[in-house]
Amino acid sequence: MEGRGYKLKEFARITNLSRKALLLYEKKKLLVPEYVDEKTGYRYYGTEQVRKAAQLSFLRNLNIPLVHIADILEKKSGLKKYFTRSGKRLELLRQQIKISHALQSIALCDYDDNLISDQIETTVIPQMTVMTLEARSEIKDVAVQFSVLNRFMHQWNIRVSGYPFTIYLKDSSIEIAHYKVCYPVENYTPVQHPDIRCEVFPSVKVAFMYHYGDYDTLYLTYNKLRGAMEQQGLRCTNEYLETYVIFGDKRYTDSSTFLTSVSGILQ
């Protein structure tokens, strides 16, 4: 750095901005050099402009057009207003959910290469320690019970160790389901609550299929699972597990981000 400031080449190096980008920002009056030598044409940038260059980089990395960046830097607008008005907030949330979905799918495929399959498979679910909340209600109220159990666990700092699931007991009916919402946990924790328990579930053998989508079409996978078990002569206890492998978010994206393992417990 010379007495007059940073030359363009040096300023580009310390700000990680290209010469082309700096000249464009100068043309758009977003980042104008503090001094330009009329004889040599050398451009000099001040120390305070390093921070402004960093702000520019940050905003450009969010794919915000230069015209809107100018308004943000001049305090005519703000990031929140830009994302709200442009619809970019929704777009970014969708991208975040899809990236999360992709990462979870990759992790799942590491131990289950047959993720996309219309065939039922059998597996043994090992013994596990589980926090449960038992209830009788319409199916649509399962999510409410999960919220109650989740709040209780958060309050008592009980750590989850696996995918949440619902077990539907054999006396469930179409109108009213008898079920337990469950979170696998690391350690057995005695609790005092009228409905919530810490239980040790024994190892069970199950036949399962993956369901892609939300609750609206879940019955289709159940029908296919029951039909396939009958075809293969697999005897079910009439108790079923729904394991929620990948959660989506209906507010910001379509239901293709949901993945549920639907299992029948075998005799």
A few lines on this structure:
This protein has helices at residues 8-15, 19-27, 48-61, 66-73, 79-86, 88-109, 142-155, 218-231; strands at residues 6-7, 35-36, 43-45, 121-125, 128-137, 165-168, 177-184, 196-201, 204-212, 236-246, 259-266. By secondary structure, the protein is of the alpha+beta class. It is elongated, with a radius of gyration of 28 Å.
Order of helices and strands: EHHEEHHHHEEHEEEEHEE
Q: How many beta-strand elements?
A: 11
Fraction of helical residues? 25-40%
Overall SS class: alpha+beta
| Biggest sheet strand line-up | 4-9-11-10-6-7-5-8
Description:
The chain is of the alpha+beta class and 267 residues long. The chain contains eight helices and eleven strands. It has an eight-stranded antiparallel β-sheet. The radius of gyration is 28 Å and the shape is elongated. The termini are far apart. The mean pLDDT is 89.
Map the helices and strands.
Blueprint: E1 6-7, H1 8-15, H2 19-27, E2 35-36, E3 43-45, H3 48-61, H4 66-73, H5 79-86, H6 88-109, E4 121-125, E5 128-137, H7 142-155, E6 165-168, E7 177-184, E8 196-201, E9 204-212, H8 218-231, E10 236-246, E11 259-266
Write a concise keyword list for the protein shown above.
elongated; single chain; alpha+beta; three-stranded antiparallel β-sheet; eight-stranded antiparallel β-sheet; 8 helices; 36% helix; 267 residues
